[in-house]
Amino acid sequence: MTKASLLHELQHEMYIALQPSPVHGIGVFALCGIPKGCRNIFSKDTGEWIRVGFEDVASLPEHSRNYIETYYLYDETHYFIPAQGCKVMDMASYLNHSATPNIISIEEGKYFETLRDICKGEELLVDYGSIADVVGYEK
User: Fold this and answer.
1) Distance in angstroms (rounded) separating the CA atoms of residues 101 and 126
2) 73 in Cβ contact with 133 (< 8 Å)
3) Do 103 and 115 form a contact (C-beta atoms < 8 A)?
4) Which of 4, 98, 122, 134 keeps 20 to 30 A from 76, CA to CA?
5) Measured in whole angstroms, how far is the alpha carbon of residue 94 from the centre of its chain?
């Protein structure tokens, strides 16, 4: 990213911050109003996801297992971990689940899109089940 693109992002695309969540732990919250249909909420080009089975995670050291269980999305049998590894963290990893989400995952997990206008201070929530349906991953 260049200085000019960074300043543009800060001026026009700085929508979210992490805060304590009443839903669970830490969540993603709107710093300002976010319009319906907005797609540039999170980092761009965060890459693919690696699908890791529960049994593989269970065999990891406790601190690694706790990290994965806390920060990564999952379905009935697998966690989805960023292909770039666990040392770079996108705020999307802090999204909490809701059966009535206000954002959705689109284009094979490359973007999230707001389903409606989101108010300043509101937590962004996603249906975890819908992410597993569209996320691109390595087997």
Assistant:
1) 5
2) no
3) yes
4) 122
5) 6
Q: Which residue has the tokens 């929530």?
A: 125
DSSP state of 101: -
Q: Pairing relation of β-strands 123-126 and 96-97?
A: parallel
Q: For residue 52, what are its two tokens? A: 């890791």
Confidence (pLDDT) at 128: 82
Contacts of 130 (CB under 8 A, 6+ apart): 101, 104, 105
3-state secondary structure of 49: strand
From the CB of residue 52, how many other CB atoms can be counted at a distance below 10 Å? Answer: 18
| Total-model pTM | 0.76
d(CA 30, CA 100) in angstroms, rounded, equals 17
> Out of 26-35, 39-48, 97-106, which region has the weakest mean confidence (pLDDT)?
39-48
Residue 45 corresponds to which tokens in the numbers above?
A: 């080009």
